[in-house]
From TrEMBL:
The keyword Iron does not apply. This is Crp/Fnr family transcriptional regulator. The keyword Coiled coil does not apply. Keywords: Activator. The lineage of its organism: Bacteria, Bacillati, Bacillota, Bacilli, Bacillales. It holds the Pfam family cNMP_binding.
Length: 225
């Protein structure tokens, strides 16, 4: 439990004693694939940490179009904004596979925050970091062209989740085109065109349960020049 909590950005710099306090207010919950954890607009009362599985965070327009904001895996956390400010959820969360979460309810979370300022301070620092990251993502959507956004998001996921062997980075799960199109802010047809180009240049190799990026070929391509 402590090792998992150390991987959560909000708790990375906490001591083992502080992590014991966090662990004491968590509950373990299991979910089937494609389970909606909460919907955009619902009251927020739960903070979630992914133990196993994958969770997609997305928003929906009135026309039913989806925009993927993030895809979370083991060690990631989400739901803290609505938990802290008490406002409705800004997005919908859905499991993409069999998923196990550690959850903290609102009452327990606020009691911990009031009783332990050192923990509360670290959480505030990490929330600021996420806000800065979001601002950077907005800038990318504004100034980068569609293919560059696709490639940058693929590389970002590879850096975060991949395992490097020589010039290649292996990402140990199937490529999710819907999630990637949402993260890059592009239409699915644009994504497919970029993927075909990356495969033709042998920069990207898609497998059934993983995909691979050849870094040496990527840095020789027009995408980074």
């Amino acid at each position: 439990m402590i090792e998992l909590l150390k991987r959560v950005p909000l708790f990375t710099d906490l001591s083992d004693e502080q992590l014991d306090i966090v662990a004491s207010i968590t509950s373990r919950r299991e979910y089937h694939p494609h389970t909606t954890l909460f919907q955009q607009g619902e009251p927020g009362d739960t903070f979630c940490i992914v133990m196993r599985g994958t969770v997609k965070i997305y928003t929906s327009s009135r026309q039913g179009l989806q925009k993927t904001l993030a895809v979370f895996q083991a060690g990631d956390s989400f739901g803290e904004l609505a938990l802290i400010d008490g406002k409705p959820r800004s997005a919908t969360a859905e499991t993409l596979e069999e998923t196990v979460l550690l959850t903290v309810n609102s009452e327990s979370f606020h009691l911990m925050m009031r009783a332990h300022y050192d923990i509360a301070k670290q959480i505030m620092i990490q929330l600021c970091s996420r806000l800065r990251s979001t601002n950077g993502h907005v800038s990318e959507l504004t100034f980068l062209d569609a293919p560059s956004r696709v490639v940058k998001n693929i590389v970002r996921i590879a850096q975060h989740e991949g395992k490097r062997q020589g010039d290649k980075i292996h990402i140990p799960h199937a490529f999710d085109p819907d999630a990637m199109a949402g993260l890059a802010g592009v239409h699915r047809t644009v994504l497919e065109q970029v993927i075909r180009d990356l495969e033709q240049q042998r920069i990207l190799s898609l497998g059934h349960s993983q995909y691979t990026i050849d870094v040496s070929k990527l840095f020789q391509s027009p995408y980074v020049n």
